[in-house]
């Protein structure tokens, strides 16, 4: 018996897939979690999660639907923040004139958020709103003197600065206005 090899199991014991995992994965995706975060919560490895997605169509569909819905919720909220469509209801205590107080509700509009606007525009119209300015710095290699290179570099940088200044003016960000 000494020479017999005992087969040892490695890793965690396998968890069998159950349909309840599809709903749990959907809800976790709605919270913004990604696959590598979902797997440990379900008590499985990322490899097992990927295997379940391949093997169980409803599991894969629930993860896909949860991520799509979460992204849509964030996009809607970003859009509302950009245009100032959010409002909050606040309670205010006011004197009622008889020595007592009354609580009234006030609906307050949240102003548009410039960061949301910037993010939206940079992603929707990148050519017009990106922060990076493209510079065409083609130099003829036949003319390689340091003076020539410096002259061209200065010209190219002047053009880039001017384009950047005009872009800031167009966006209303120029401090000289």
Gap from first CA to last CA = 92 Å
Radius of gyration: 30 Å
Largest sheet: 2 strands, antiparallel
The helix content is: 40-55%
The number of distinct helices, counting runs of at least 4 residues, comes to 7
Shape: flat
Structure classification? mainly alpha
Low-confidence stretches: none
Secondary-structure element series: HHHHEEHHH
The total count of strands amounts to: 2
Q: How much strand content do the residues show?
A: 5-15%
In spatial order, strands of the major sheet run 1-2
Average pLDDT, rounded to a whole number, is: 85
Please describe the structure with a list of short key phrases separated by commas or semicolons:
single chain, 177 residues, mainly alpha, two-stranded antiparallel ribbon, 55% helix
Structural commentary:
By secondary structure, this protein is mainly α. Among the domains are: 20-83; 133-177, no CATH class. Helix content is 55%, strand content 10%. The chain contains 7 helices and 2 strands. The protein has a two-stranded antiparallel ribbon with strand order 1-2. A hairpin with a 5-residue loop joins β1 and β2. α1 runs parallel beside α4 (57-83), α3 packs across α4 and α4 (57-83) packs across α5 (114-124). The longest helix is centred in the middle third of the chain and has 27 residues, at 57-83. The protein is flat. The protein starts with 19 loop residues before the first helix and ends in a 6-residue tail after the last helix.
